[in-house]
Design a protein that fits this description.
335 residues, mainly alpha, hpI Integrase, Chain A, 15 helices, 5 strands, 58% helix, 5% strand, globular, disordered C terminus
Length: 335
């Protein structure tokens, strides 16, 4: 496309994004994506866009676009064309630009490898942060918005976390899904000890984890590098190869397998009732299926055994019932 046309489209896209209230980082990403597409096509047509998606290469290795990459570009171009007043396009073209079905990746990992990885945490505070993401399913940037006043102790000795709506670590200044309540059980004592330590200093507004989300990710990657080096020296064969965000996937999977209701999980992790996120976040592997089958079979066996006991006890009651000799008595009386 012509450079002047591309500039007009990008300026219109920027104004549309601002009207929609999108964050600056999201706007920049949309503009970069559209700029790449517009430089590779001559006009807005299904064939032109599909040809560009097939021919586009990225990185030093000139990799082709995968399903996720294709879908991101298709989403960006459809978002603009459906809102643009400058470019008029037939709705059939929009309908023909369909996303590819993507099979969710298996984000499961070895818990023993994670425990080994947490030994390389720079401090106990960093370790607590990673454990809270693993248990409660926080998004990393949400964890960093928690202050001392947001944590309280329940009657059971658990930690109740009232996640705030505001977040200084995001470009929009708020958490992605607003405020919500989260209960911490396994790491409650460590968290409450940290909170009480700050409360003694009368600093209720202090953030419990004073880092940025990018810093937390960098620290996690450094821990993985240290684990790999140590594993090569000590012969440790179980390595954590996942991402920091995979801890959230594992936490949500555990909630579903533990028997929490769908509505309760959505409230804890910040999903709307109509959200399709469970299809992406819940990872059930062979081990989970075997454990579920064992649990069902053990329940079935105990149920059958209980029925047999009930039947035996009822039959014993029938056999133990005293016989009535009323007829014999009557006959004896008649005779």
């Amino acid at each position: 496309m012509n450079t002047e046309v591309i500039q007009v489209i990008l300026e219109e896209t920027q104004s549309l994004c601002k009207k929609a209230g999108l964050a600056e980082s999201t706007i920049r990403k949309k503009l970069r994506t559209l700029d790449r597409i517009l430089k590779g096509i001559n006009k807005f047509s299904t064939q032109e866009i599909e040809n560009w998606l097939d021919s586009y290469r990225y990185g030093k290795e000139n990799k082709p676009l995968g399903p996720h990459g294709r879908n991101n570009y298709i989403s960006a171009i459809k978002w603009y064309l459906s809102r643009s007043k400058t470019v008029r396009i037939d709705q059939e073209i929009l309908a023909s630009l369909k996303k590819e079905p993507v099979k969710p990746k298996d984000r499961s990992f070895d818990e023993e490898a994670l425990e080994h990885l947490l030994q390389f945490s720079p401090s106990t505070l960093h370790e607590l942060a990673f454990r809270l993401v693993r248990e409660c399913g926080f998004r990393p940037h949400e964890l960093l918005s928690i202050t001392v006043s947001d944590v309280s102790e329940t009657s059971e000795g658990w930690a109740l976390i009232e996640l705030p709506d505001t977040n200084p670590e995001t470009s929009s200044g708020r958490n992605k899904t607003g405020s919500r309540s989260i209960i911490c059980v396994n790491n409650a004592q460590k968290l409450l000890d940290l909170v009480n330590k700050y409360r003694e200093k009368r600093n209720d507004k202090k953030r419990l984890f004073p880092w940025s989300s990018s810093t937390l990710s960098v620290i996690f990657c450094r821990m993985k590098r240290k684990q790999r080096k140590t594993a090569a020296q000590e012969g440790w064969n179980k390595l954590y190869t996942g991402r920091l965000y995979d801890l959230r996937h594992a936490a949500i999977t555990d909630m579903y397998l533990a028997g929490y209701k769908d509505q309760e999980i959505r409230a804890m992790v910040g999903w709307t009732p109509a959200s399709r996120m469970p299809n992406i976040y819940v990872h059930v592997n062979k081990k989970h299926l075997l454990d579920a089958c064992r649990h069902v079979q053990s329940k079935r066996r105990s149920h059958i055994f209980q029925e047999q006991l009930d039947f035996t006890s009822k039959s014993e009651q029938v056999h133990a019932k005293p016989k009535s000799y009323s007829r014999i008595d009557q006959h004896s009386l008649i005779s």
